[in-house]
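Researcher: Sequence recovery benchmark, item below. Answer with residues only.
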């Protein structure tokens, strides 16, 4: 398990559509172990593989800081089956340090994915877990949370975003 550097906004890997995972082999298991170490180190709620520079359809979510009954959840090759409702909440992203924005998303989601053990599962959730799933799923499609904010908020953020992108190029 190793903590990997988190890719920042401006890195082109964040805009790629991630590739499906074939066999859950040693490489994939190591990647997930590294993602878990990286997420814990960053004190984040979720992390997608492209955020550590690996364009694979994997994300992990850990909302145990908010809900003690939770532990790290691993989603491989996830598919969003259904969404309903809508809710606006403030969101952040580990690839956008210090930036928080109100984003409207579905309130409930039904998702199907494969676990690290290779078992397919379906999950219907709402609240923070649903929000985290939708945010992380977007990363696999090359979408970022700033894509959903208003043009005014985006204009207000443009200076910060330029600075972040400049850092990512270094
Ligand atoms: Zn994110």
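Model:
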């Amino acid at each position: 398990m190793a903590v990997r550097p988190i890719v920042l906004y401006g890195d082109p890997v964040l805009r790629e559509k991630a590739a499906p995972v074939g066999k859950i082999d040693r490489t994939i298991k190591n990647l997930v172990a590294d993602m878990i170490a990286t997420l814990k180190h960053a004190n984040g709620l979720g992390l997608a593989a492209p955020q550590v520079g690996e364009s694979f359809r994997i994300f992990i979510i850990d909302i145990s800081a908010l809900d003690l009954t939770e532990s790290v959840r691993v989603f491989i090759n996830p598919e969003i089956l259904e969404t309903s409702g809508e809710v606006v909440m403030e969101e952040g992203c580990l690839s956008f340090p210090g930036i928080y924005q109100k984003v409207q998303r579905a309130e409930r989601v039904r998702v199907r994915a494969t676990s690290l053990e290779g078992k397919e599962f379906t999950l219907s959730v709402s609240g923070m877990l649903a929000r985290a799933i939708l945010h992380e799923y977007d990363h696999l499609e090359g979408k970022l949370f700033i894509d959903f904010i208003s043009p005014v908020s985006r204009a207000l953020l443009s200076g910060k975003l330029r600075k972040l992108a400049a850092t990512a190029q270094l």
